[in-house]
Design a protein that fits this description.
- Helix 2 (about 35-55) packs across helix 7 (about 155-170) and helix 3 (about 70-80) packs across helix 6 (about 140-150).
- The protein contains 7 helices and 2 strands, in the order H-H-H-H-H-E-E-H-H.
- The chain has a two-stranded antiparallel sheet with strand order 1-2.
- It has a single domain (about 5-170), classed as yst0336 like domain (yst0336 like fold), CATH 1.10.3560.10.
- It has helices spanning about 10-25, 35-55, 70-80, 90-95, 95-105, 140-150, 155-170; strands at about 120, 135-140.
- This is Polysaccharide biosynthesis domain containing 1.
- One of its GO terms (cellular component) is cytoplasm.
- InterPro entries: PBDC1-like_dom_sf, PBDC1_metazoa/fungi, Polysacc_synth_dom.
Length: about 170
């Protein structure tokens, strides 16, 4: 992932205005295209940072939140059979899935900051963020799935691939 634009392209004043706008409650806005673009940029930056992190550090050792253990335990209790290597969007977005996810997500209100903010989630954990491999999810869904992918070893392929490509560059 590479980003030549983003908040940096807004300049200092623009970035400050964006930060202020993003701190206001959603009810303060209609469907403002500029605000939607700022949210998309913020979600993209989060995705870029996370992918760089799992490329650089063995994901088995990552701690994403102070509540990782609680999130992982609750996730696997609520979704013991959810296939996380390659997600089916229906497992997160269908009406039936939303009914299961809602109580799971809401239990983290006040525990995980911005638990219900939107973020980007990779469908196939062996691939980078692309338009075809990305789903918009809540932050707690992202944490639950990525913590599980890290602990269960599914994100290790990203770290290993990056380590091998770094060796090739050094050779």
């Amino acid at each position: 992932m590479a980003s030549e634009s983003g908040l940096a392209s807004l300049g200092a004043d623009g970035a400050m205005a964006a930060a202020h706008a993003l701190s206001l409650p959603a009810e303060a806005y209609g469907n403002d295209p500029q605000l939607e673009m700022m949210w998309a940029m913020k979600a993209y930056q989060h995705a870029e940072i996370y992918f760089n992190l799992i490329s650089s550090v063995d994901p088995k050792f990552l701690k994403l939140t102070k509540a990782d253990d609680k999130i992982y335990t609750a996730f696997r209790e609520s979704f013991p059979d959810l296939r996380i290597q390659v997600l089916d969007p229906e497992d997160l977005k269908s009406a039936e899935a939303k009914e299961k996810w809602r109580p799971f997500c809401n239990q983290f209100e006040g525990i995980v900051e911005d638990f219900n903010y939107g973020t980007l989630l990779r469908l196939d954990c062996e691939k980078d963020y692309t338009e075809e491999n990305t789903l918009f999810a809540t932050r707690i869904q992202f944490f639950a799935i990525e913590i599980a992918r890290n602990r269960e070893g599914y994100n290790s392929i990203i770290f290993s691939a990056n380590r091998h490509s770094m060796r090739d560059v050094q050779s």
